[in-house]
Design brief:
two-stranded parallel ribbon, about 50% strand, globular, mainly beta
């Protein structure tokens, strides 16, 4: 009940509608943690709720006490996990474009981000089987992440498994991707 009350106050500020099904799992001892299932997030416009920008079977969010006490002014996230998320990229970009400008500060994520069995839908293309693992995120430090999935564009498929490295999370000057990539078409395959 408390989470639904918090969302009722948060949704108008964000311009989003956030729903979930079932019981909320939470932990307050140590680092507070919240787990919700069958999550659906959509822009709060009158005709947009039928096309959510994000759906997920399970979402875990862990925030340190200092973030909770500061009510997000000192934004640090411990961990984010998404199981079977489906992100509609055009809806996300429209929502971001409608948002007022902010300070652009990237939150610190100390214990990483993990996505499994994801899907990213673009205009005329998609990525299935999306997996992403980022051990930590700090704006001024190097990042190492692993990402994989299969891009589908018309009759072309491109499965990939990559390790990404950037010298910094913000204003990166060097980005490397190492791993495997294949292009599969009815006329052949290129690895």
């Amino acid at each position: 009940r408390a989470l639904r009350l918090v969302l009722a106050r948060l949704e108008p500020t964000l311009g989003l509608r956030i729903t979930f099904e079932g019981d909320v799992e939470y932990r307050l001892r140590g680092t507070p943690q919240l787990v919700v299932r069958d999550v659906r997030i959509a822009s709060a416009g009158p005709d947009t709720f039928d096309a959510p920008m994000l759906q997920a079977e399970r979402m875990l969010l862990s925030l340190p006490w200092k973030t909770i006490r500061s009510r997000g002014a000192d934004l640090e996230i411990s961990r984010v996990e998404l199981d079977a998320p489906r992100l509609h990229l055009p809806s996300l970009l429209r929502w971001l474009d409608a948002r007022p400008p902010g300070d652009g500060k990237v939150p610190t994520i100390t214990d990483g981000v993990r996505i499994v069995r994801g899907r990213l839908d673009g205009d005329g293309w998609r990525i299935d089987g999306l997996a992403f693992d980022l051990p930590a995120l700090h704006a001024d430090r190097a990042i190492d992440a692993q990402i994989g999935g299969t891009v589908h564009l018309d009759a072309l498929q491109a499965p990939f498994r990559l390790r990404l490295h950037a010298d910094r999370a913000v204003d990166a000057r060097a980005l490397q991707a190492r791993g495997t990539l294949a292009l599969i078409h009815s006329s052949g395959r290129l690895d």
